[in-house]
Design a protein that fits this description.
Strand content: under 5%
Radius of gyration: 16 Å
Order of helices and strands: HHHHHHHH
Length: about 180
């Protein structure tokens, strides 16, 4: 299905299905949410020639949002489990039917095999399923730049590092 006001938007895309769930849960889908997604991609994969397949040689983090899958960090597996979450009624939270790409990725765990829509859906669902992120999403939607930094540091980067925080602030406050 295509949105008649925005014909370039595929309403059946995985990202749109995750965003629709956020909206149903009281999070306004403003341009500020879109800007947060874009800025996080810049913070993670920067200006890489192909951000979908970029890999950090030090951490082995990969893709637009730099997910990691190794012995010490299984953020790909965690994100896949979160996007596959079911509600109390047994239905998937984000989808009527789980897209096949999720089951395939659970087998190969290679984030670089996913397209932009899939990586973005995984990123958003991974954040949304964490405790405390609904309020951050709501504040981001209202334009709260500190909420962007907090979301990034607490729920995506997940480490307390002054250098990374300063970098994140330069991205999220700088309006890149």
């Amino acid at each position: 299905m295509v949105d008649k006001q925005n014909p370039h938007i595929n309403l059946n895309s995985s990202t749109m299905q995750v965003l629709n769930t956020l909206e149903k849960r009281g999070i306004n889908l403003t341009d500020n949410i879109a800007q947060f997604i874009y800025e996080t991609a810049i913070a993670e994969s920067g200006t890489a020639e192909n951000p979908l397949t970029v890999k950090n040689p030090l951490t082995q983090a990969a893709g637009i949002y730099q997910f990691i899958e190794n012995d010490k960090n299984n953020s790909v597996t965690t994100a896949l489990n979160r996007i596959s979450t079911k509600d109390n009624d047994g239905n998937y939270i984000y989808f009527d039917e789980l897209p096949e790409w999720i089951n395939e990725t659970k087998k190969h765990k290679d984030i670089t095999k996913l397209n932009k829509d899939q990586q973005t859906a995984l990123f958003l669902a991974n954040l949304h399923q964490q405790i405390g992120t609904d309020d951050l999403f709501k504040n981001i939607a209202k334009g709260d730049k500190q909420a962007k930094v907090d979301m990034y540091m607490q729920h995506h980067y997940k480490k307390d590092d002054d250098n990374v925080r300063a970098y994140a602030e330069s991205i999220f406050f700088g309006g890149n």
